[in-house]
Design a protein that fits this description.
By secondary structure, the protein is mainly alpha-helical. The chain folds into 2 domains: 80 residues, no CATH class; 63 residues, Arc Repressor Mutant, subunit A (Orthogonal Bundle). The longest helix is centred in the last third of the chain and has 25 residues. The chain is globular and about 55 Å long. 12% of the residues are buried. Keywords: DNA-binding.
């Protein structure tokens, strides 16, 4: 059962985390031409070797038609590849292309560089230690259902 203290902490933490996430998303010039859904699909494909369009639609809570349009755009940009499934010739597997992998790495590098520079310039050594100690609890919050 949440207490008054956890309610207050949540109310302070949520907007700060949301602003940080928005800032990190805006910082990457390599990611400007992609929608949030397109970026999310690229991350999913980076985590998996290959997925079906229908699987991506379910994971992203999108209609198959919307996913098809999204995948067409990513394909036109050269960020994904489509391959016939070796086990079922009727199915098309979607995976990241070499260009897609490079794009994801570039975006991550840009965000990491900015965050590292910001931490180094804004936070004292003691505050950096606090941030490091907060990684565990924040990770558990991400995993909480």
């Amino acid at each position: 059962m949440p207490s008054r203290n956890t309610d207050l902490l949540a109310a302070e933490l949520r907007p700060l985390l949301a602003r940080l996430i928005r800032k990190l998303r805006k910082l990457s010039p390599a990611n400007e031409q992609l929608s949030q859904s397109e970026r999310s699909v690229l991350v999913l494909l980076d985590q998996q070797d290959a997925l079906l369009s229908a699987e991506l639609a379910v994971m992203e809570k999108m209609t198959p038609q919307s996913m098809g349009q999204l995948l067409q755009h990513l394909s036109a940009l050269g960020l994904i590849t489509k391959t016939i499934s070796p086990t079922d010739k009727r199915k098309i597997l979607i995976s990241l292309s070499a260009t897609g992998k490079e794009r994801i790495q570039k975006v991550r590098r840009e965000r990491d560089e900015w965050l590292s520079r910001a931490i180094g310039e804004v936070c004292t050594k003691e505050e950096q230690a606090i941030l490091r100690a907060a990684i565990g609890p924040l990770s558990r919050l991400v995993e909480y259902e």
